[in-house]
Amino acid sequence: MLDHILRGNFSNLQDSLHKATRKLEFWLLAIWTSFIAINITLVVRLGENIDEIAIQILTWAVALLLVIRNRSNFKFESTPSAIAIGTLLIVWVLLKSLLTRRTTDILFIFTPVMATVGVALIGSGWKGLKQYWQPILLAATLGIPVAFLFAAIEKVIPVNVFTAQFANTALWYGGVKVAQNGITIVSQFGAVEVARGCAGLPPILMLLRITLMFVLVFPVSKFHMWIMFPAAIAIAFIVNSLRVALLVIVSGQADVFKYWHAGDGSQIFSVAAVAILLGLCNYLTKDDEDEYEDEYEDI
């Protein structure tokens, strides 16, 4: 049915839809899609971070794409225990979604992966759960308790100090008279303290998620995969450090500083980082795509 719709052929749509609704996979996909819609609606309404909202929508879109693309390979053989657990998970997720008031609630954060696992259990049981490892993995990235993760990393790695050092070095090479004292950068324009929120962990996590989605959707060799993930970290760190350097330069102008710190200007750096990453991924995987097409033609 989906193939006919994509081709613009709607002649047998009613008959195909009637047959599809009689299949278990249709109803499971409908339940999962409904939850995705509810989850995105809550994140958009209650969330404040534009980057986080965008990555939430993109992650669900990619997960849905992977399920539709691999739907012909799924085997639907469940067990009573798996159906019972899956149903309980879905009911709990729906109740939690209806009662939640903030997206930072630790129990709400786990609802994407719980809903995905619940639907998979109903459809294919415990043994068939591995068929859905891609959407489950993507849903799990939405279930990361970011605040706890960042706090744990910052206890081990002083990311804000490294960011201050890189920004200070960039300004020095740019001809700006600067001095660094820990996480504080002092210049003739003013002083800026690199707090934890500006350390660069949020953009690093965002680019790692995008890299994971790219790897799951497109054919990528293991060699290039090992390049992409470290490159994502490096790109996010460098771009964020350059943003901090710019904030030092405009620190004496309150309105301009606010624009580049928390306004639309901060989103420009996010877009630039994503564009650089995708450009690199596209460049690295050109040969991988050609090899994949050649193998597909041989088959």
From TrEMBL:
<dbReference type="GO" id="GO:0005886">
    <property type="term" value="C:plasma membrane"/>
</dbReference>
<feature type="transmembrane region" description="Helical">
    <location>
        <begin position="26"/>
        <end position="46"/>
    </location>
</feature>
<feature type="transmembrane region" description="Helical">
    <location>
        <begin position="227"/>
        <end position="248"/>
    </location>
</feature>
<feature type="transmembrane region" description="Helical">
    <location>
        <begin position="268"/>
        <end position="285"/>
    </location>
</feature>
<keyword id="KW-1133">Transmembrane helix</keyword>
<protein>
    <submittedName>
        <fullName>Cyanoexosortase A</fullName>
        <ecNumber>3.4.22.-</ecNumber>
    </submittedName>
</protein>
<dbReference type="Pfam" id="PF09721">
    <property type="entry name" value="Exosortase_EpsH"/>
</dbReference>
<dbReference type="GO" id="GO:0008233">
    <property type="term" value="F:peptidase activity"/>
</dbReference>
<feature type="transmembrane region" description="Helical">
    <location>
        <begin position="106"/>
        <end position="126"/>
    </location>
</feature>
<keyword id="KW-0645">Protease</keyword>
<keyword id="KW-0378">Hydrolase</keyword>
<feature type="transmembrane region" description="Helical">
    <location>
        <begin position="204"/>
        <end position="221"/>
    </location>
</feature>
<keyword id="KW-0812">Transmembrane</keyword>
<dbReference type="InterPro" id="IPR022505">
    <property type="entry name" value="Exosortase_cyanobac"/>
</dbReference>
<feature type="transmembrane region" description="Helical">
    <location>
        <begin position="132"/>
        <end position="153"/>
    </location>
</feature>
<feature type="transmembrane region" description="Helical">
    <location>
        <begin position="53"/>
        <end position="69"/>
    </location>
</feature>
<keyword id="KW-1003">Cell membrane</keyword>
<keyword id="KW-0472">Membrane</keyword>
<feature type="transmembrane region" description="Helical">
    <location>
        <begin position="81"/>
        <end position="99"/>
    </location>
</feature>
<dbReference type="InterPro" id="IPR026392">
    <property type="entry name" value="Exo/Archaeosortase_dom"/>
</dbReference>
<dbReference type="GO" id="GO:0006508">
    <property type="term" value="P:proteolysis"/>
</dbReference>
<dbReference type="InterPro" id="IPR019127">
    <property type="entry name" value="Exosortase"/>
</dbReference>
